Amino acid sequence: MKPVYKEEKRNYWTAPQIILNVLIILVSLTCLLPFVNVAAVSFSSKSAILRGDVTFWPIEFEATAYKAIFADPSMLRSLWFTVRITVVYTLFSMIMTILMAYPLTKKRLGGRKFFNFLALFTMYFSGGTIPLYLNIKELGLLDTPWALILPGMLSTYNMIILKSFFSALPQELEEAAIIDGANDYQVLLQIYLPLSMASLATLTLFYAVGKWNSFQDALYYIQNKAYQPLQLKLYHLIKGSQAVDIAAMEGGSSAVASSVSESIEPASIIFATLPILVVYPFVQRYFVAGVTIGAVKG
After folding, report:
1. Same structural domain, 21 and 130
2. CA–CA dist 170, 197 (Å, integer)
3. pLDDT value of position 250
4. Is there a domain that residue 4 lies in?
């Protein structure tokens, strides 16, 4: 009897696979190269920047812009204040999101459709900036850290995402827990939350990044420099660098300030972005899992 030889499977690159990989590489480079360019400009000299020689590698390497940033003693204070505000805001926002999303999944909740309508209404209609400012002023929140926390503490969009995830969980788990004598709080803490860690991590990242990047609320409500977050400090720093450019054109600026003005903006972007880039790898797997589960379960 002749032996039967199985034909070995060979993985050939097909045309669709090649095109897909090329597209993925191009999209990745589109996201990565601008950040590399900003980092290169932040470490380059003003003359090299003005000549247009800087692409993806620093030319005439210098760190004058970063020295100017760290020379301001209030910069690190704003950094730590922003960290604290982001942590407190994210914690309170997640608590509010969970406490609103969980009851709205229960059909036995009286007025559930009405509360859903109120939540959706705020997504499409708002009073505007001036009424919100007057409201915060009447509540005595101006020039306090709470003005950066309370007004935007609950995102309706994030609440709907978490509500949809809670609704997709098997109801049999809750029924079994209720038969064993568990109440709503125990069901939430011991069943729903442990099964929703990926989605919770994803929403936590959304809240944290949104608060870290925001500065308009501080621009409107905060005058005390002790309560100015990092993004607002960088906003003023960039505005100051523009003033340096104007003064340089008029011949009234110092040589050091003039040399920093071209690289201060990219250096500020790197300084404000690095903390989030450091945190993101630790929550990346939860973020990917949360997005995937949300896509599968609808």
Report:
1. no
2. 16
3. 47
4. no
Calculated CA dihedral for residues 270, 274, 275, 276, nearest 10 degrees: 100
Q: Note whether 122 and 148 are same-domain residues.
A: yes
**What band does 94 get if pLDDT is binned at 50, 70 and 90?**
very high
And the tokens for 59?
A: 């030319």
Q: Which two tokens stand for residue 120?
A: 């959706």
Cα-atom radius of gyration of the chain, to the nearest Å?
26
CB contact at 8 A, 234 and 217: no
Same domain for 119 and 204 = yes
- What average pLDDT does the structure give for the chain? 79
What confidence tens digit (pLDDT) does each residue in 46-63 have?
778 777 778 888 888 888
Q: How many residues make up the chain in this entry?
A: 298
Instruction: Give the Cα separation of 182 and 190 in Å (integer).
Output: 10
Judge if 83 and 203 occupy the same domain. Answer: yes
pLDDT for residue 231: 85
Distance CA 235, CA 80 (A): 17
Q: Domain total for the chain?
A: 2
Q: For 146-178, b where at least 16 C-beta lie within 10 A, e where not — what string? A: bbbbebebbbbebbbbbbebbeeeeeeebeebe
The boundaries of the domain holding residue 108 are: 63-297
DSSP 8-state symbol, 3: P
How many of the other CB atoms lie within 10 Å of CB of 203? 25
Name the one residue in this structure whose structure tokens are 């360019």: 37
Close Cβ partners of 85 (under 8 Å, ≥ 6 residues apart): 145, 148, 149, 211, 229
User: What is the model's pTM?
Assistant: 0.75
SS3 170: coil
